[in-house]
Fold:
Amino acid sequence: ECHGCLGGVWTSGMLSFVIDAAKPGLNAEITAKLDALGAKMTDYRKSDDSHYVYDVEGMKYLLETLFDELKIDYVYHSRVVAVEKDSNNRVRAIVTE
Structure:
Protein backbone atom coordinates (compact mmCIF):
# COMPACT_ATOMS: atom_id res chain seq x y z
CA GLU A 1 0.00 0.00 0.00
CA CYS A 2 1.40 3.36 -0.96
CA HIS A 3 -0.52 5.05 1.85
CA GLY A 4 -0.58 4.29 5.56
CA CYS A 5 -3.59 1.98 5.47
CA LEU A 6 -5.21 -0.85 3.55
CA GLY A 7 -8.25 -0.24 1.37
CA GLY A 8 -7.26 2.20 -1.35
CA VAL A 9 -10.05 4.67 -2.15
CA TRP A 10 -12.27 3.06 0.49
CA THR A 11 -9.93 4.36 3.20
CA SER A 12 -7.15 6.72 2.08
CA GLY A 13 -9.46 8.13 -0.60
CA MET A 14 -12.23 8.48 2.00
CA LEU A 15 -14.86 7.13 -0.39
CA SER A 16 -16.79 5.64 2.59
CA PHE A 17 -19.49 4.23 0.33
CA VAL A 18 -19.92 0.57 -0.65
CA ILE A 19 -21.75 0.35 -3.97
CA ASP A 20 -23.58 -2.93 -4.58
CA ALA A 21 -23.52 -3.71 -0.86
CA ALA A 22 -26.46 -6.09 -1.24
CA LYS A 23 -24.48 -8.48 -3.43
CA PRO A 24 -23.53 -11.73 -1.71
CA GLY A 25 -19.92 -12.57 -1.00
CA LEU A 26 -17.22 -10.13 0.03
CA ASN A 27 -19.40 -6.99 0.04
CA ALA A 28 -21.98 -8.66 2.29
CA GLU A 29 -19.25 -9.97 4.60
CA ILE A 30 -17.61 -6.54 4.87
CA THR A 31 -20.85 -4.66 5.55
CA ALA A 32 -21.94 -7.23 8.15
CA LYS A 33 -18.60 -6.89 9.94
CA LEU A 34 -18.75 -3.09 9.76
CA ASP A 35 -22.25 -3.27 11.29
CA ALA A 36 -20.89 -5.45 14.11
CA LEU A 37 -18.14 -2.88 14.75
CA GLY A 38 -20.69 -0.05 14.85
CA ALA A 39 -19.03 1.55 11.82
CA LYS A 40 -22.21 2.12 9.79
CA MET A 41 -22.44 5.91 9.46
CA THR A 42 -26.14 6.38 8.77
CA ASP A 43 -29.28 4.42 8.18
CA TYR A 44 -29.09 5.50 4.55
CA ARG A 45 -29.60 2.66 2.15
CA LYS A 46 -31.30 2.83 -1.18
CA SER A 47 -34.64 1.08 -1.25
CA ASP A 48 -32.96 -1.92 -2.88
CA ASP A 49 -30.29 -2.12 -0.12
CA SER A 50 -27.51 -1.69 -2.67
CA HIS A 51 -25.53 1.15 -1.04
CA TYR A 52 -23.83 1.36 2.35
CA VAL A 53 -22.09 4.32 4.08
CA TYR A 54 -19.40 3.59 6.67
CA ASP A 55 -16.85 5.23 8.97
CA VAL A 56 -13.44 5.24 7.26
CA GLU A 57 -11.55 4.47 10.48
CA GLY A 58 -13.80 1.46 11.05
CA MET A 59 -12.98 0.17 7.56
CA LYS A 60 -9.24 0.62 8.21
CA TYR A 61 -9.54 -1.37 11.43
CA LEU A 62 -11.63 -4.09 9.79
CA LEU A 63 -9.27 -4.59 6.85
CA GLU A 64 -6.19 -4.83 9.08
CA THR A 65 -8.03 -7.28 11.34
CA LEU A 66 -9.03 -9.46 8.37
CA PHE A 67 -5.48 -9.44 6.98
CA ASP A 68 -4.05 -10.31 10.39
CA GLU A 69 -6.54 -13.17 10.88
CA LEU A 70 -5.59 -14.57 7.47
CA LYS A 71 -1.88 -14.03 8.21
CA ILE A 72 -1.47 -11.82 5.13
CA ASP A 73 1.56 -9.54 5.32
CA TYR A 74 1.21 -5.92 4.25
CA VAL A 75 3.70 -3.08 3.86
CA TYR A 76 2.70 0.56 4.06
CA HIS A 77 4.22 3.51 2.22
CA SER A 78 5.48 1.32 -0.62
CA ARG A 79 4.61 0.41 -4.19
CA VAL A 80 5.10 -2.72 -6.27
CA VAL A 81 7.62 -1.78 -8.97
CA ALA A 82 8.54 -5.15 -10.49
CA VAL A 83 7.49 -8.79 -10.61
CA GLU A 84 9.63 -11.92 -10.94
CA LYS A 85 7.92 -14.86 -12.66
CA ASP A 86 8.86 -18.53 -12.90
CA SER A 87 9.08 -20.64 -16.06
CA ASN A 88 5.29 -21.19 -15.92
CA ASN A 89 4.70 -17.43 -15.87
CA ARG A 90 3.55 -17.51 -12.23
CA VAL A 91 4.56 -14.74 -9.84
CA ARG A 92 7.50 -15.86 -7.67
CA ALA A 93 8.35 -12.54 -6.07
CA ILE A 94 7.56 -8.85 -6.13
CA VAL A 95 9.86 -5.88 -5.71
CA THR A 96 8.67 -2.90 -3.70
CA GLU A 97 10.04 0.58 -3.12
The first helix runs from residue 26 to 37. The longest strand covers residues 80-85. The chain has a mean pLDDT of 89.
